[in-house]
Design goal:
The chain is built from four helices and 18 strands. With 294 residues, it is of the alpha+beta class. It is 15% helix and 33% strand. The protein starts with a helix and ends with a strand. It folds into two domains: 144 residues, Beta Barrel (OB fold (Dihydrolipoamide Acetyltransferase, E2P)); 106 residues, Beta Barrel (OB fold (Dihydrolipoamide Acetyltransferase, E2P)), CATH 2.40.50.140. β7 and β8 form a beta hairpin. The strands form three sheets. Strands 1, 2, 3, 4, 5, 6, 7, 8 and 11 form a nine-stranded mixed β-sheet that branches.
Length: 294
Amino acid sequence: MNIKQRIKSSKAFLFLLVFAACQQPDEYAIPTAIGTEENDQLNALLTAIEQGEKTLISVGQAKDYFVYRRVHTFTSDLVLKGYVVSSDRTGNFYKELYLQDAPENPTAAIHIMLDQTKSYATFNLGRIIYIDLNGLHIGESRRGNGIISIGGQLNTDGDEVESIRSLDIPERIFRTKTTVEITALPVEFSQISNEHIGLFVVIDSVRVSDEEQGKPFADPRDYYDTQRTLVACEGTSSTTFLLETSTFATYKDQPMPLGTGSIQGIISKTYNGSDLVLTLNDAADANMTGAGCQ
């Protein structure tokens, strides 16, 4: 190889290196490891728990601090452990997480308000996380809506919790390296109550109501959310329940399924708290392609 060829080859190699360095990571890539600093913070938190400087509590124990229509501020060194069961990857959740106390057969769940979008890239579905509660607040995201929430700030009247600030999130919420598979809790529509809010559930033998089959998940005339009616066979009778989809969801224009099958998602409430609803992480969680139940 002569000198000119070597120069051309070197330039080509440098171009490839620069090109590769400029490529952006996959928008939907989920991290499989955590950085050194983040790992050190987590280890320090776990050491404090082990040495009795902080107390680890369950989701259910954290909810015991909730008083209806009031806000409680944590002043003790309590740490909450939970499993992420919601995902904002498709835009159906916004600046929020739902955590439950176990990856399978959970008994309690709680709502976390945080000033962060695309949280799925950090707190992905199934990720085990710890929250340092001292200084945070537990109450309702909207007074009287019945959704028990943890936040970092209070509204002007002091009776609602607001998001943990983005700058405070790294000092408050610590993710582990572990992501586990979440098994949806089997329930029937007639069984669902406020105790199920935040849980990742699955309902079988479900179809969309006759009037709404084939309509898009979200009505283009709605500003924020659309509720569609689901019907489930329960023995010899049927029960209805609301499916809520954000008008900002990436799948909002997809038609509702025409068949019968299973559907899995998070139990939540409408904006004013008047009705319980099912909210999906993804349209694919509505696996309703079979024949109708008998």
